[in-house]
């Protein structure tokens, strides 16, 4: 097959991470599963290579402004990739960890619901519970006639109230009313005068008079009126009063409510968030369960834990003394005390006075006043925990936001299924009133399982006819609920915090976003979508992936689940080993061909040639001690009594949403933490925990990453590096030099390389490109000084190794080298046990795969488990994440090691190999959500497999308990693939289009033509382009979309078969006076960065390269140039950057500085003013004001060193009375004249920035009358002016840049000299460019981008243009071809 065959993604020479020059052609439009052992290179190929390139290329089509928010992926290490479509990743990462992030915010359902509530919800009064609506004259009229008819048409008074202002008297107000014709006053009370507008019988007057009276009463009564019903004409006593209001005001209770807005229904907005908890739904406070952790203790024996230290023994004595006087028993266990006695201990009697018991609560309130002391803060942290907010009761919203409801009573009852609706704390509703209220509030919806919420909205009918926006809104809500149900997440609630979701749940939520986009010709990349799914539910995800494929998309799935592998179109098995032993293609083809391949480890397991062996000597789980939880009722659990045998492998399993995580993470784990007296959130509802006294500790092992820096490595993680350093420190030569174990640490000490601080590399920041990490030039990547490496440890066979050589060894090599050190072998043994023996001791942890990192975490726990007397309970959450069959076998062996050490294991798991290897299984179900929460079965794997009512048992039976997979079959017929291969537009009504139906072939060249104004651009750009781009942007996060601002939905019934789109529009403008060919094609962006990183700065006066200078040289020059003057030493903190800089002011204040110098003005740091956030600011720190003389040299040196530290090697000297400061730098100074220069910045080479432009022509290159620094050059005046009208700038000679920028050279050329050459000549010179190794690494991506753009300019016939050619001088055809080259590139 040639590289250009249609329908394939062609990869050549992939070298990302451990990939070994991989060549592969992946057919598009298929479901391809990539598998292999952990660390074999799956993610390197799928995510770091294919997804990165597909996403990067599409993001390149956006404007430079938009790209900075779209998180463009790094360019992968690969020779070339062809035929790759735009890519969307659906992975397990959840970037948001705040408690405000919930399932509702992740799926954006909260955003849609707040709009729906603001548009359609009804308000119910917090007192009477009646609906509160805005009354109109017509509605009041109709109600009055109806009520009056029922009472026999009594006489009524239509009245309004006037409030008497404080500076008026009643008589004055009455007098003013009389002048307006209002002479009848109904009543007076305090500062209110009630005026009669009209007196009438409702039936006796016509509509005009009644309407006129009501309008006047509402107008003068500020939207409120009262209609008093009189007893009779002879007895004018008021029988009853009917109140009305044309605002949101409950006339019966006289309560005003604010108008609804979308932000009022968002807990992420200050308008809608509860004021007490600020939208978090909980507050941090004293957890009295931690204050009294052991309920078996008495008050005398130390039930109140914080008072058992000498520091607070006095409080214990006060309690005992006053308890005896009050008759409180001191020798009764806390759990047996009366509730009133416990309340007395906690709440006390009153304020802190003699013979008055202050209580535990006031004791902690007193401690809070001392929290400025570190030891008090440490003490308080031991007794703090999160508790539900007392104001909103966990609803997160402000009181009024909880009063709005949608739907009817019948629909609400069906959704709640007998449960009570949520009662806001601010209401006075009784239980009967609450149950009779129609519809559901927003928090009721948040608490509903998604399956029930979906039914609620599917059947919801809103009153009145809906506008298009509300119909679209309701359709979007229904669609999102439907997708969530289809991927098996119907058991979740919208209020569930996103940080509590498993990786699989996060991924399936992201999968619903992909379904919602309805894109075609897109590459979807998934990372183990089976995680968190029971085998029973696996087919749901398979069906969703097949639906995406059948719509015309390509799917690349990293997966180990046999069901998904067997239903893939193609299977790619990478290996053969992990890490350095991986990165090769072992097998590639259809699932049947991979299964038949004898080299494929995956095929061997799927066919039964190899299987995960059960560990020998399984224990009997019916004997021995156990941990018991009784009557657990948290979330959907129904009075569950769970028994967990200790010193066993217990597997908790069940279908998705059956309550596994609730039982283990929300109840058992926090209950055990509280038992051991550790800070934790409140445990879920349960009655009793028994058997915890048999354990010494509990450890929860989840999916959180380990080690985020390159300094973390396997040797340090298992404690082996400490042993190695100690061995080196004991060597005679090391002791002779006075070296300690700390000398051989690359994290601290004087043994590490000072240039790279022990990291082994130089970090080169590349701004909008991926950063470059270069091997440190001084230590050559070894991390240590040469003197440290001279210490060599002897090994077998007269071998010797330095500390760096040891870190480069694999685990077996290190064990062999240190054969006489049994302690090191013991420390490294856990790495062998979990199958990570191929790792090098110093390999940075962030380079490990997900599966490798999980096993390294387990190895760390194995290393700590040597002492059998310290019995721990390990809780694992899906430990098989990222693990192949081969890896799972190693995992089970590691589990047995923990059990043999006397520990106990409880595992939440769906993997059938782990389940069948367990000693005891607890199967929850029978279904998810409301239909789950029960223990279906508990027993050994053989017992569970025999049960027909257990989904786990059925799965085990199908797995045949011998590890051989039976081929999975879809429960539903596979849908047909989309064969239309066209973009189908139906009933387009945008602008002047009149119900247009059109089918546009994909993969074809289609021309749309017609007379001017016929709708060509409307169809092509406003409908097809906007919709294709909008759907791709829908897959991005909401933060990015707010900057990119996708187009609104077009007026069209449906658009099907649309891929992500790119527009190359014709513009009437060729560009502004500051635009050139280089800036239009974005070549100049990369050139500026190239000159910053590889350019050599010269002094513009002396024309010699600049060099570093010492602090002594700066001191001498300051004394020479400013002798006898008073100067300010300023440390530059911010140079031409936008922002408010509130945190910077706080930092300066914390360091003892009183002022900052902002844009030339000194400003106090307290109070800090609000700066203009859209203006570029220069901010300096005034370090000292000094008089310069030879006598003050010592003081000058001290303050200069301080200023250079804060200014990172740069200091400014400002003489008294001067406006401009002189710059001194320890890094950049002319060796001839001593002038210092600031650090190079890309803005120095920009003629749109005041840092770079020529101060005479302001970056235009010409002397233009009336052009100043406030002009951008994009204004119509300058665009329309002919370029030849203005003479070349005499200062920069048309180069546009200042003299400092022009003095920076790369290969003896300034950036201005480089860009004045034609494209053809520049392209030729770059081909012959020779770079050193370090320069090659830095310039790799830069030169690739520049060369690619130059090639496109040559392809469209513009090789004759120079890059500095001004945009206004281009012809229309040249400008259009430049834009074509820029976007095709």
Structural notes for this entry:
It contains 48 helices and 47 strands. Residues 1-6 and 967-975 have low confidence and may be disordered. The protein is globular and about 115 Å long. A hairpin with a 7-residue loop joins strand 36 and strand 37 (996-1001). With 1385 residues, the protein is α+β, with helices and mostly antiparallel strands. It starts with 7 loop residues before the first strand and ends with a helix. The strands form 13 sheets. Strands 5-19-20-3-21-22 form a 6-stranded mixed beta sheet. Helix 16 (450-458) runs antiparallel to helix 17 (468-486), helix 30 (822-833) crosses helix 31 (850-864) and helix 40 crosses helix 42.
What would you call the shape? globular
Number of helices: 48
**Which percent band covers the strand fraction?**
15-25%
Question: Which class of secondary structure composition applies to the elements?
Answer: alpha+beta
Helical content stands at 25-40%
Give start-end ranges of low-pLDDT stretches.
1-6, 967-975
- Straight-line distance between termini: 26 Å
The total beta strand count reads: 47
Sum this structure up briefly:
By secondary structure, this protein is of the alpha+beta class. Helix 5 (137-150) crosses helix 7 (207-220), helix 10 packs parallel to helix 11 (359-368) and helix 31 runs parallel beside helix 32 (885-900).
């Amino acid at each position: 097959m040639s590289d250009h065959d249609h329908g394939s993604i062609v990869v050549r020479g992939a070298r990302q991470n451990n990939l070994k020059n991989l060549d592969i052609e992946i057919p598009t439009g298929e479901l391809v599963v990539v598998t292999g052992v952990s660390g074999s290179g799956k993610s390197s190929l799928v995510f770091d290579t294919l997804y990165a390139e597909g996403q990067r290329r599409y993001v390149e089509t956006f404007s430079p402004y938009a790209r900075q928010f779209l998180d463009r992926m790094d360019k992968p290490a690969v020779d070339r990739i062809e035929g790759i479509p735009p890519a969307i990743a659906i992975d397990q990462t959840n970037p948001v960890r705040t408690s405000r992030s919930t399932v509702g915010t992740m799926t954006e359902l909260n955003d849609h619901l707040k709009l729906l509530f603001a548009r359609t919800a009804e308000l119910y009064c917090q007192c009477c519970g009646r609906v509160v609506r805005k009354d109109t004259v017509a509605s009041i009229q109709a109600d009055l006639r109806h009520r009056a008819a029922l009472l026999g048409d009594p006489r009524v008074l239509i009245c309004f109230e006037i409030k008497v202002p404080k500076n008026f008297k009643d008589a004055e107000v009455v007098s003013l009313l009389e002048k307006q014709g209002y002479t009848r006053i109904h009543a007076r009370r305090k500062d209110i005068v009630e005026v009669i507008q009209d007196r009438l019988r409702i039936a006796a007057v016509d509509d005009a008079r009644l309407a006129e009276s009501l309008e006047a009463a509402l107008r003068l009564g500020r939207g409120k009126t009262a209609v008093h019903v009189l007893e009779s004409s002879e007895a004018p006593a008021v029988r009853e009063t009917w109140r009305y209001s044309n605002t949101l005001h409950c006339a019966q209770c006289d309560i005003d409510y604010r108008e609804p807005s979308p932000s009022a229904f968002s807990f992420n907005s200050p308008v809608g968030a509860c004021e007490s908890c600020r939208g978090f739904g909980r507050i941090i406070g004293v957890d009295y369960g931690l204050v009294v952790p052991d309920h078996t203790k008495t008050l005398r024996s130390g039930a109140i834990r914080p008072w058992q230290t000498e520091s607070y023994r006095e409080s214990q004595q006060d309690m005992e003394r006053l308890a005896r006087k009050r008759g409180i028993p001191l020798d009764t266990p806390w759990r047996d005390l009366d509730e009133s006695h416990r309340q007395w201990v906690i709440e006390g009697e009153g304020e802190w006075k003699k013979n008055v018991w202050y209580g535990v609560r006031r004791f902690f309130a007193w401690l809070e006043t001392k929290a400025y002391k570190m030891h008090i803060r440490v003490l308080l942290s031991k007794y703090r925990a999160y508790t539900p907010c007392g104001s909103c009761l966990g609803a997160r919203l402000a009181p009024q936001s909880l009063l709005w409801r949608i739907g009817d009573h019948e629909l609400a009852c069906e959704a709640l299924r007998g449960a009570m609706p949520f009662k806001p704390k601010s209401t006075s509703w009784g239980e009967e009133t609450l149950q009779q209220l129609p519809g559901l509030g927003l928090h009721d919806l948040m608490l509903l399982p998604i399956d029930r919420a979906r039914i609620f909205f599917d059947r919801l009918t809103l009153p009145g006819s809906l506008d298009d926006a509300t119909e679209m809104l309701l359709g979007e809500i229904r669609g999102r609920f439907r997708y969530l149900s289809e991927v098996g997440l119907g058991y979740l609630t919208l209020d569930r915090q996103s940080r509590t979701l498993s990786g699989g749940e996060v991924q399936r939520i992201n999968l619903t976003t992909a379904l919602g986009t309805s894109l075609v010709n897109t590459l979807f990349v998934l990372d183990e979508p089976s995680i968190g799914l029971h085998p029973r539910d696996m087919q749901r995800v398979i069906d969703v992936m097949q639906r995406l494929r059948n719509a015309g998309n390509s799917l690349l799935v990293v997966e180990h689940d046999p069901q998904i592998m067997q239903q893939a179109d193609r299977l790619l098995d990478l290996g053969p080993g992990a890490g350095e032993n991986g990165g090769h293609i072992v097998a590639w083809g259809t699932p049947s061909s991979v299964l038949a391949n004898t080299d494929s480890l995956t095929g061997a397991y799927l066919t039964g040639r190899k299987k995960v062996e059960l560990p020998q000597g399984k224990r009997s789980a019916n004997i021995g001690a156990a941990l018991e939880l009784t009557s657990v009722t948290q979330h959907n659990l129904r009075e569950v009594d769970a028994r967990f045998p200790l010193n066993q492998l217990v597997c908790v399993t069940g279908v998705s949403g059956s309550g596994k995580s609730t039982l283990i993470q929300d109840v058992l784990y926090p209950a055990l933490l509280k038992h051991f007296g550790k800070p934790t959130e409140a445990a879920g509802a349960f009655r009793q925990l028994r058997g915890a006294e048999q354990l010494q500790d509990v450890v929860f092992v989840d999916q959180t990453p380990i080690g985020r820096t390159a300094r973390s490595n396997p040797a340090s993680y298992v404690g082996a590096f400490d042993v190695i350093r100690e061995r080196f420190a004991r060597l005679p030569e090391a002791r002779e030099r006075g070296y300690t174990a700390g000398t051989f640490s690359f994290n601290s000490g004087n043994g590490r390389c000072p240039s790279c601080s022990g990291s082994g590399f130089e970090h080169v920041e590349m701004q909008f490109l991926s950063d470059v990490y270069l091997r440190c030039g001084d230590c050559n990547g070894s991390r240590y000084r040469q003197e440290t490496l001279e210490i060599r440890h002897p090994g077998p066979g007269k071998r010797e190794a330095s500390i760096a050589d040891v870190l480069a060894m694999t685990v077996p090599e290190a064990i062999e080298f240190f054969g006489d050190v049994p302690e090191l072998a013991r420390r490294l043994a856990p790495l062998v046990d979990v199958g990570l023996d191929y790792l090098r001791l110093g390999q940075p942890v962030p380079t490990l795969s997900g599966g490798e990192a999980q096993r390294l975490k387990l190895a760390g726990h194995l290393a700590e488990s040597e002492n059998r007397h310290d019995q721990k309970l390990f809780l694992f959450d899906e430990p098989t994440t990222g693990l192949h069959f081969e890896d799972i076998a190693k995992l089970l062996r590691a589990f047995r090691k923990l059990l043999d050490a006397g520990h106990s294991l409880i595992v939440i798991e769906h993997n059938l190999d782990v389940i069948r290897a367990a000693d005891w299984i607890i199967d929850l179900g029978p279904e998810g959500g409301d239909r789950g929460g029960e223990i279906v079965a508990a027993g050994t794997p053989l017992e569970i497999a025999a049960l027909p009512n257990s989904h786990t048992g059925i799965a085990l039976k199908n797995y045949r308990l011998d590890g051989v997979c039976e081929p999975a079959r879809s429960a539903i017929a596979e849908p047909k693939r989309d064969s239309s291969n066209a973009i189908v537009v139906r009933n387009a009504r945008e602008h002047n289009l009149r119900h247009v139906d059109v089918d546009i072939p994909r993969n074809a060249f289609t021309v749309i033509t017609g007379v001017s104004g016929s709708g060509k651009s409307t169809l092509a750009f406003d409908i097809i382009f906007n919709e294709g781009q909008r759907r791709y942007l829908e897959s991005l996060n909401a933060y990015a979309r707010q900057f990119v601002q996708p187009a609104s939905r077009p007026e069209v019934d449906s658009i099907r078969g649309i891929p992500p789109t790119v527009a190359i529009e014709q513009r009437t403008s060729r560009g502004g006076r500051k635009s050139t060919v280089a800036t239009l094609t974005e070549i100049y962006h990369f050139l500026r960065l190239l000159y910053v990183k590889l350019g050599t700065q010269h002094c513009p006066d002396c024309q010699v390269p600049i060099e570093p200078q010492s602090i002594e040289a700066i001191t001498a020059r300051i004394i020479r140039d400013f002798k006898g003057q008073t100067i300010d030493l300023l440390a530059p903190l911010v140079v031409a950057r936008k922002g408010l800089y509130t945190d910077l002011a706080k930092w300066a204040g914390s360091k003892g500085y009183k002022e900052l110098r902002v844009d030339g003005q000194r400003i106090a740091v307290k109070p800090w003013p609000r700066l203009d956030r859209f203006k570029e600011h220069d901010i300096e720190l005034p370090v000292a004001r000094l008089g310069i003389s030879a006598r003050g040299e010592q003081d000058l040196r001290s303050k200069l060193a301080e200023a250079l530290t804060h200014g990172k090697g740069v200091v400014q000297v400002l003489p008294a009375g001067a406006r401009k400061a002189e710059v001194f730098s320890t890094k950049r100074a002319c060796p001839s004249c001593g002038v210092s220069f600031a650090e190079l910045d890309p803005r120095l080479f920009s003629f749109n920035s005041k840092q770079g432009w020529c101060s005479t022509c302001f970056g235009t290159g010409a002397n233009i009358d009336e052009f100043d620094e406030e002009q951008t050059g994009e204004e119509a005046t300058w665009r329309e002016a002919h370029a030849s009208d203005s003479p070349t700038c005499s200062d920069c000679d048309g180069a546009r840049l200042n003299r400092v920028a022009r003095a920076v050279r790369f290969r003896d050329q300034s950036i201005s000299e480089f860009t004045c050459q034609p494209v053809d000549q520049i392209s030729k010179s770059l081909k012959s460019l020779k770079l050193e190794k370090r320069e090659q690494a830095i310039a790799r991506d830069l030169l690739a981008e520049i060369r690619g753009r130059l090639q496109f300019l040559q392809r469209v016939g513009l090789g004759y243009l120079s890059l500095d050619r001004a945009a206004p001088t281009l012809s229309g055809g040249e400008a259009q071809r430049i834009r074509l080259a820029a976007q095709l590139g």
